[in-house]
Structure formats: structure tokens, C-alpha cells
Predict the 3D structure of the following.
Amino acid sequence: MKYFFPAIRTVLLFTGLVLSSCSDSWLEPDPKSFFAPKNVYVNEAGFQAGLVTLRKNLNYDFAGNRNPISAEYSYSDIAVSGFQSDFRQNTPSNSQFLPILSFFTAVYEYIKNANVLISRIDDIEWPREETRNMILAEAYWHRAYWYYRLVNTYGDVPWIGIELKGTKLDFQSTSRDAILKKIQADLEYAVQWLPVKPGALGDVTKGAANHLLTKVYLANTEFDKAIASATAVIDGPYRLMQSRFGSYADDPVRNVLWDLHRSENKNNPQNTETIYTTVDRADGPPEAWTAGAHTMRLYTPSWWAILDATGNRACNWDTRTGDTLGIGNADVRTNNYWHYTIWNENGYNWKTTPDLRRADINWVEMTEILTCRSGSPQIGLSLSKDYFSNLADTVGRWYPWPIYKTFIPTPNHTQPLGGQSDMYIFRL
């Protein structure tokens, strides 16, 4: 105990010295920089950086598990969702399976990014008015793209057309018609100022503006204008590809449709069908990667879960077969209308149609997949339904699919999900 009080006196003395040396200035933050609009939009380079952000935002539609575009296919006439939301509850309206609410929230973030650029376009003196107008035109295009997606997903939604600099809680929905008319006007401006050909990869062009404007004209029932804007696209620097090209050009088994859907060919200068695509490269810097397209997960059946006579998986996903076919999960379960019925035309059916979109080499039929498990009594034989415990399992495990669209190598992931890839937004 004789050492206790001196220890306390020492602590108190030290504390007093520390406190007496403090001042308010010592507590003030001293940041080295602020990444804020007022510090970014100070010159042309800052506005160009803003456009890069807007272009990167487009990847959200196509990347990651159960991404928004896959949800759109789930609700179309060619598929159903393999996993349903809980329709017994109204809130929360999101789901771990479908991005019903998260899409809404994310898109308004991207609209905000466009609005900041648009609202600050005249914060600087522009050496060339044409540069200002071209940057503004692209920002209008991005905002129009996301509003077009919103109103055709949810109907009436809040319109936000300026940068919000303070708290706002009293949002009200604006009619779908009013929003479509506004983005029509914005796109008409964009068409005037965007370039015919991109100056760099990712730049939005006049063709992309006319293509989106055509969709908006149709939604607004302005059919003659839609014909004119669509004709402008057709008369632009775009042509249907009829000859082999790109990374598989020397593969005699494949065809031009296969070439068109290879990741590395979508922005190939030889590809005259490309109007606009996202940019997402597996060989890019890791910090630029998205989660990948997941096409080999979302759109394909769980073929790898099919059993052989011994009750073991006949051919698992972690095989050379799996590297090509993927680790399907049937999130977007396509239907027989698309697999078979739609090809019945002019005396043809799905087996005989000359349409390359249903060519045998471009699709995988379940009987074409061979048992590959070492030691299986069926090794080398086609997968079979004979060993299903319940035929209901065929819903998610047994149906054909268009591998020409789903095959995307996945070098940056362990599982063959479908990796980073440029994705078409508009194609002739």
C-alpha cells in the first residue's frame, strides 16, 4: 500500500501536463485532400473523370450474382425466375434472390452522379463550347438510360433533375409519361452533339443516342420520329457482320454469331454491329474488376448436380467440362417457348432452322454432356434422367441453353461463374 499513493500522484501529474498542452487546433482535422464535386469539376479533366464514373456505373446492370438484367429476363416471355420473392410481405420489398429494391436505390445513385455533372457544367470557363456540349450530351444520355430503365421497371418514380446539396425527404412520384418526355428532349440534344465515332473506348456516340432515343420515341408513340432515329442508326457506321472475325476466326467449327458474342470481340474494331457496350476486362487492373457477368451461373441448368447409377455426380463443375459449361444454378430458367416453339417457322423447327441463333453448335443439349467422373459406370455416356429421385428436379437441371451467349471464361474466380466481360448495351 505504501506505493499506491505516489503512483496516483504520478498519473495525475502526467495527465495534467498532457491536458495543459492540448488546444482546439490540435483537435481540428487536417485532411490532405477532399474528393468532392467542388474539387473535381474545376476543369475539363475533372468533367472527363465524371464521365468515366458514369460509364463505370453501367456495369452494375450486368455484373454480379442475380444482377438487374437477369431479373429482367426472369420476368420476360422466355423465362421464369428460379427463385421467387416472398410475395406474402410488402416490406421489405427486396429479396436475396431478386434486386427489386436494391436496383431502385442504386440507380438513383447513378442519376445523382449524372446530375452533379450536369448541374456544374457551367462552373468553369470552357475554351471550346463544343467540348462543353459534348460532355453535357453524354451526361444527359446516361441519365436518360437509367430513367428509361426505372420507368419501365416501376412506372411512376420521383424525377430528380438537379444536384441535391442538402437533405430532402419530400420526394413525390412523377408520371412515367412526363419523365419520358423529358428524357426525349435531353436525348434530342445529345444526338446533336455526340460524335459519330468514339474518341476512346467507352465514349457514348451519336448512334447510341439515336438508338435510345428510338426506344423513347416508341414509348411516347411518336412513331415517325422513331423511324427517323432508327434509320439514322442504320445509315451510320454500323453493318451486320457476315464474315468470321476476331479471336475464333480460324475455328472452322464455329460461326459468326459465336464470334459476335465473345467478350474480346464486342469492342473489336472489326465488329461493325457494336453500337455501345460496357467495358469490363478480366486482364485489367484488379481494382477495376466487377464481380463478373455470372452468365454461366444464372442462365444455365445445374447439369453438374445430375447423378450417375451409383448416386454420385456424373460430372462435376470442377472439371474441364465445367470450365466450359459453368456452374449453372437456373436462376433464370428459360422455357420451352424459347427452346423449341419460337423456331417453328416456314416449315422449320428447332432442329432444322437455318437461324444461327438456334444452330446446334451454338447450343448445348443435355444429351450432349457426357459423364466424366472417373470410376463411374456411365463414364463417356450421355447424362441421363434415369437416376433422378424426383422428375421435378429436371426443372432446374435439365434444359438446353445458348452457350454462345453464356460462355465467358472466369480466370479471376475459382468457380466457373462467367467472369469479367464487355457486355452489349446496344447492338445493330
User: Anything to note?
Assistant: Residues 39-164+171-238+273-288 form a domain with the Serine Threonine Protein Phosphatase 5, Tetratricopeptide repeat fold (CATH 1.25.40.390). The chain is about 40% helix and 5% strand. Residues 87 and 93 are 9 Å apart (CA to CA). The mean pLDDT is 90.
